[in-house]
Amino acid sequence: MPEHVSFLQLLGPVVLALAAVLWVMGLVRLLRGSRPDATARYAGPALSALPNQRQTPPDREAVELTPAERDAFAGLVRRLSDGR
After folding, report:
1. DSSP-derived 3-state class of residue 84
2. Using CA of residue 32, residue 38, residue 42, residue 48, what is the dihedral sign?
């Protein structure tokens, strides 16, 4: 141990190296936990009280507007867009 270096100065790089190793380990653990296949490990049993989710989106709906409704909608859009 050099005579002109205090104990705290020698301990500083060791503490920084330890903190860096712990940070890298935490980062690796965090990134591994965000993988899609990682959720399969923690999935519990299915809840039987809930219905199954739809795999496809619902059908699109379309409604035909009358000419009066189209005019009213166009007027509403003009009125709302005037404020911008």
Report:
1. coil
2. positive
Cβ(10)–Cβ(1) under 8 Å?
yes
Gyration radius of the chain's alpha carbons: 32
Q: How far is CA 70 from CA 35, 77, 81, 82, in A?
A: 48, 10, 16, 18
DSSP assignments along 15-49, one per residue: HHHHHHHHHHHHHHHHHHHTSGGGHHHH--PPPTT
pLDDT in tens, 8-20: 899 999 999 999 9
Q: Does the structure show a pLDDT above 90 at 37?
A: no
Q: Which residue from 82, 67, 1 is spatially nearest to 9, judged by alpha carbons? A: 1
| 15 phi and psi angles, rounded to 5 deg | -65, -40
How is residue 41 written in tokens?
Answer: 């490990």
